[in-house]
Amino acid sequence: MEPVLTFTDNGIYCPAGDFYIDPWKPVPRAVITHAHSDHARWGNDHYLCTKDSVPLLQLRLGKEISAQGLSYGETLRFNNVQVSFHPAGHMIGSAQVKVTVDGQTWVASGDYKTENDGISGAFEPVKCHVFITESTFGLPIYHWKTQQQIMSDIQAWIYKNKQAGKNSVLLAYSLGKAQRLIYNLRGAVERFLVHGAIYNAHETLLQHGWPLPPVELITHDTPKEHFADSLIISPPSAADSAWMRRFAPYSLGVCSGWMQVRGNARRQNADAGFAISDHADWQGLLQTIRHTGAEKVFVTHGFSSVLARYLQENGIAAAEVKTDYGSEEDTTA
């Protein structure tokens, strides 16, 4: 039997349906798991994604793109191929892609996390014969605190900064991580002041009905006295920039799974590191693989060789696959 999906120089390909999943080179038909730029790239003739991802793809790639959106669980047919999207929990609109051909089901998970963050949708494991998993944090050292614990840590840090006369600045990726923080810290923060990249994503989501609290765009006219009563959120790209210096004196916090490793915050010249990730930790990866019931697992971007070897040693057929994903991992993770 021919494989449902194959791994090519353009990306993950479905021969029976003649489409690619998250291609890294331009193709006629692209099926997209989520709107981060390492998975949703410019230049494809047509994009198929979840309905919630359509406005985010248009924000990133331009309103002129040809994009079709499906609801979670809705099935589309290409020839004898059935395609559907299922919640991945990674960010708003993110999905796993379920592909079934002649009774064989493969699932390409894209990026995913197993803890429900309250805004991105709860992850749902999908039964399949073959599962394609990421492994961004595919090492046993990566074990996340609960989101509630992390949010409490951030609130305590903000209070400590205020007592010390410092403004609080968090670095968080503009699409996904920033909205997760804003949504879950609402009520604990008087005002959110944000960088333009975060503001644009936030406004797009507000326009499409997402229940996010309001934020204020930081401009040259933003009163400095607002800084002390606000949580300032910036993308990592603005760190050590002239834009950042306006907030002095400030304390800098980094929100990333990489903060799990001692010393990473110091290497980024940060005062605090919060290990909050939009990817599954080691136990989340293993639990998900077990729940799929997959007979074969392909492991992509991250610590792929480690996870693949662990699965093999524990009786699960697994193989490492090289992809072009992960170019944003240092910032979105």
CATH architecture of the largest domain: 4-Layer Sandwich
Give me the Rg, rounded: 20 Å
CATH topology of the largest domain: Metallo-beta-lactamase, Chain A
| Name of the CATH superfamily of the largest domain | Ribonuclease Z/Hydroxyacylglutathione hydrolase-like
Q: Mind explaining what this structure looks like?
A:
The chain is α/β, with parallel strands linked by helices and 333 residues long. It folds into two domains: 6-141 and 279-332, Ribonuclease Z/Hydroxyacylglutathione hydrolase-like (Metallo-beta-lactamase, Chain A); 147-274, Rossmann fold, CATH 3.40.50.10890. 24% of the residues lie in helices and 26% in strands. It is built from nine helices and 19 strands. The chain has helices spanning 54-61, 147-163, 177-185, 196-207, 242-245, 264-267, 282-292, 304-313, 329-332; strands at 6-7, 12-14, 19-21, 29-31, 46-50, 67-70, 75-78, 81-87, 95-101, 104-108, 130-135, 167-171, 191-194, 216-217, 230-234, 250-255, 272-274, 296-302, 317-320. The protein has a seven-stranded mixed sheet, covered by helices on one side. It has a six-stranded mixed sheet with strand order 1-2-3-4-5-6, with helices on one face. A six-stranded parallel sheet has the order 14-13-15-12-16-17. A hairpin with a 4-residue loop joins strand 2 (12-14) and strand 3 (19-21). The longest helix has 17 residues, at 147-163. It is globular. The two termini are 37 Å apart. The model has no long low-confidence stretch (mean pLDDT 95).
